[in-house]
Amino acid sequence: MNRGDESNEQWERLKPLLPPQKPKTGKPNHDRRQVVNGILWILRTGAPRRDLPERYGKWDGPFNREIYRQRNIVERAINRLKQKITGYTVHLVVPEVDSGPILIQAAVPVLPDDTPETLHARIQVQEHKIMVEAIRYATALPNPLAARQCQEK
C-alpha cells in the first residue's frame, strides 16, 4: 500500500459499491483496488491522468472503463471514504517518495457538501498561502536538508 491509497478497512467499505468482477476472458482484467487507488490519486493530486504513477497500472485503465462511470462509483467512493480533514504539505525532496523533512503544512477541513473540485480549490488557496512561507524558510537555511535533520534529532 502506498501513501494516499485506501486502507484495508476503507477498501472493505468500498468493495460493495463496485459491480461484480467480470470473468476473465482474453484480455486481463484490471485489479479493482489498483484502479480505485489510481482514480483517487488523480482526484487527490489534480494531475493529468497521463502522469499516473506506474504502480496504478496503465494510465488509461482507470478512466477508459465504462464500469467505473456507471452508477456514480467514483463519487460514491469519495463520499464513503471522505475524511474530516485533508491539507497541503511542503517538504524537502529526497530520493524516497514523500519522505523529505516537512517544512510547513496547512490543514483544510472536508465539508459535507464538498465535491472533488470544491475541495481541490480550497486546498489550492492554502497551497498558495504557505508556499511563499515555505520558500522563505527553505532559502533562509544554509543547507535546508541538513538543518532540518538536525532539528529532528
The global form is globular
Classification by helices and strands: mainly alpha
Mean pLDDT: 72
Q: Spell the H/E element sequence.
A: HHHHEEHH
Fraction of residues in helix? 40-55%
Strand content: 5-15%
**Straight-line distance between termini:** 28 Å
Number of helices: 6
Radius of gyration: 18 Å
How many individual β-strands? 2
Biggest beta sheet summary: 2 strands, antiparallel
Q: Give the strand order, joined by hyphens, for the main sheet.
A: 1-2
Protein name: Transposase and inactivated derivatives-like protein
Region (Disordered): 1-31
Pfam families: DUF4096, Formyl_trans_N
Domain Insertion element IS402-like: 7-61
How would you describe what is shown here?
InterPro entries: Formyl_transf_N, Formyl_transf_N_sf, IS402-like_dom, Transposase_6_like. This is Transposase and inactivated derivatives-like protein. It holds the Pfam family DUF4096. The chain has 153 residues and is mainly alpha-helical. Helix content is 44%, strand content 10%. It has six helices and two strands. It has a two-stranded antiparallel ribbon with strand order 1-2. It is globular.
Give a brief description.
This is Transposase and inactivated derivatives-like protein. With 153 residues, this protein is mainly α.
